[in-house]
Design brief:
Blueprint: H1 3-16, H2 20-40, H3 46-66, H4 72-86, H5 95-109, H6 119-130, H7 136-146
Amino acid sequence: MSKIDVIRGAMVEAMKAKDKARKDSLSMLLSALKNAEIDKRSPLTEEEENAIVKKEIKQCQETFDTAPADREDIKEEAASRIAVYKEFAPEDMSVEQIKEVIAGVLAELGIETPTPADKGRIMKVLMPKVKGKADGKVVNETLAAMSK
């Protein structure tokens, strides 16, 4: 069952429960997924669906972070959306799992101790392996810590 069907089912339940905030959040997420499917002109893969959910979470987080201090309503709405979206987001890789993938990439490239100069070459191979499973910022920081 695709994520679109799961979200549609959750949205119906939210409507029955008369939970307007949750229904609105799910509606926006469903809309983002459907628009991506229309743009692609074929059904989305699970990885693509997960990437869209993560993108929506990131956008809500940016809204939360950039909202003026006196606009609590915007912050509350963004926080509630993030909470709803996280229910449908895949679990991020832990730092330990990221380190394991980095170690595999280093072995693949034949690099024993990474230097900052090797970073571009490593990231080029590494990012496709963790795409949609880990935040790029965390991957970058973990690699930087390993190459000191």
